[in-house]
Design a protein that fits this description.
It is built from 5 helices and no strands. The chain is mainly alpha-helical. The protein has one domain.
Length: about 100
């Protein structure tokens, strides 16, 4: 736990517990939303077979990202999760979304 606290720059166990709760809630909600979202788009396992799961995961990824920041905000951890999102997206090569304007 101490390694995570140091890596994430947090000091209290309470904040660490809140962060874990936010990750758990976000994962649960995004998994729960994935079925109706795919039905709404007309994506079914019968039509796509093997490709259903990878396509479903790719579609749910942006929803997860938005939910993570939103639920983090609700739990008072917006600053942590916004920084976490920016780091993750930069590591995936999507950092151009957050580039600061150079003067």
């Amino acid at each position: 736990m101490e390694k995570l606290k140091k890596r994430w720059g947090i000091t209290s166990n309470y904040q660490l517990i809140i962060i874990f709760i936010v990750f758990a809630i976000t994962g649960t909600i995004s998994a729960w939303l994935s079925k109706p979202f795919c039905v709404w788009l007309g994506i079914t396992k019968n039509d796509l077979g093997f490709w259903f799961t990878p396509i479903r995961l790719l579609l749910i990824f942006p929803i997860y990202q938005v939910l993570l920041v939103l639920i983090g905000f609700i739990f008072g951890q917006f600053k942590f999760f916004w920084a976490f999102e920016k780091r993750m997206l930069r590591s995936m090569g999507l950092g151009f979304f957050f580039e600061e304007e150079k003067k």
